[in-house]
Amino acid sequence: MTNRKKSNLLQPSSPATPNQTYTRENIYSVNENTQSEKLKKTMMDSKNSRGKRTSVSCFQDTKNSLQALITIMDTKNIDEVIENLIDSYTEVLSDEELNEFRLIRKSLDKRTIKR
User: Fold this and answer.
1) Most buried of 5, 6, 18, 46, CB within 10 angstroms?
2) Torsion of CA 40, 55, 85, 105, to 10 degrees
């Protein structure tokens, strides 16, 4: 039999330390003041003129596609992406279709006014 002391490998002798640490400032080079002012202005505009928030049901793959568009287009939220898509779509509508779109939209807006 040997008289060697058993080592406990589950308890290291010194704590592990990372070679390099990262902070938010190291990763992102964003001017916080400018970004926060723009965000506050956008949020105030959207809260005042847009009305209440709603939810729309869609499939998971559609949600993932929309999230990818948010990332690619560098927008703040899905509303901006959808507004861009609506604007693009309404540009190719004929005059008759555009009038019909506006009429339906006006009718829906009247239905959702706060009472």
Assistant:
1) 46
2) -100
Q: 78 with 89: CB under 8 angstroms?
A: no
Residue 102: its pLDDT value, please?
Answer: 92
Amino acid at 114: K
* Segment 62-88, tens digit of pLDDT: 999 988 988 888 888 888 888 889 999
Tokens coding 39: 């965000």
User: For residue 98, what pLDDT is reported?
Assistant: 92
Give the model's pLDDT for residue 38: 61
Instruction: Flag whether pLDDT at 49 surpasses 80.
Output: no
Query: Which of 86, 83, 80, 81 has its CA nearest to residue 42?
Result: 80
The dihedral built from the CA positions of residue 87, 89, 91 and 96, taken in this order, carries a sign that is negative
Q: Which residue has the tokens 């779109």?
A: 101
CA distance 110 to 115: 11
